[in-house]
Request: fold
Amino acid sequence: MATPVMDKADATGSPEPGFGDSPYITATFRIRRFNPEVSAEATWEDFQIEIDPKERVLDALHKIKWELDGTLTFRRSCAHGICGSDAMRINGKNRLACKTLIKDLNPEKPITVEAIKGLTVLKDLIVDMEPFFQAYRDVMPFLITKETNEPTRERLQSAEDRERFDDTTKCILCAACTSSCPVFWNDGQYFGPAAIVNAHRFIFDSRDEAGEQRLEVLNDRDGVWRCRTTFNCTDACPRGIEVTKAIAEVKRALITRRF
Amino acid sequence: MSTSESTASGIGPVEGASLYSVDNPAPVIEPPRKRTRKSPKSTRGNFEMAAWLFMRLSGVVLVVLVIGHLLIQLVLDGGVSKIGFAFVAGRWASPFWQVWDLLMLWLAMLHGANGLRTVINDYAERANTRLWLKGLLYTATVFTILLGTLVIFTFDPNIR
Reply:
């Protein structure tokens, strides 16, 4: 990650990167630490590092973990915005650490990093995702057809039919939306935007035949009707899914089905 | 890689002996949406949908009713100064205004009560708090609706 800088320093012949051309800045990361083996309370801890502002928050977390404090704990897998492991609350907004550049965060002030809200924190930035996945499982996120025999040919679908649910296929289950929802924060019983998005993906799939069942699941007291259309989920989604619109479409499907 | 001013400022290390250790970790808050024996199997039904739909429809009707009401009472034809017992008695002599006011009373009360119900559901965390707040809300709603309805239907302009 520092290669271009070293090259430049070598080329100019200066022993260390000069102040004028160094891309490095000193940034403070204020990280919410929690370790149940040390204290029942979570505390803020500041880390000051020198980093290129064009790098991502994940790079900063790596630098802190690898060079300053190995006990810092966070999830990440692919580091390229696809696996959905590193959703966290950065400067008060849910984002993926691997898709957030430091220069976009006003690094003059301390950058706060904390675990996503509404789920139990296990350690530092890691939360228990089980309630989130329980809601996901509840909406049956898999193809269901009425025929019991194995299909003998491909299930064909027109481009228009595929387009109908294209937006909600982009979900990476990072929980940024669900953990930004104030209704979910209250008691965690609301299904949450992510589960509804994934139900939407199958409800509006022309090949699927269990849309009715999924709508019935979401007609729950803690289903789509608890949505207050605050649009927090749409703002939080790192994939740009129009989450609130998807929820509204499920609501509309429930109403048109009944009347 | 070199790092100037390393590590933590702000909060120092935890002082004194910790209560918690690897063998005795701090209690973790119970996760939400955990399936326990007490959690209800399913709360599916059409009530929430009906309530949601009612909010939208009654809202649209209330816009017309309330703005009309405010115009008549406060703006048109002399404004608020014209209102008195005689004005109300004259209006309620017509069944049209009786129905208008009755509809406005019922829709506004139910709309407001349902809105407060969702606020209580969203913000009151303990089951007991919810129970009491909703009990109070429903009592007040029923009382106001019944009293208002009674007055509209039994209004006597010749009362002395």
Observations:
- The CA atoms of residues 80 and 161 of chain A lie 30 Å apart.
- The two ends of chain A are 59 Å apart (CA to CA).
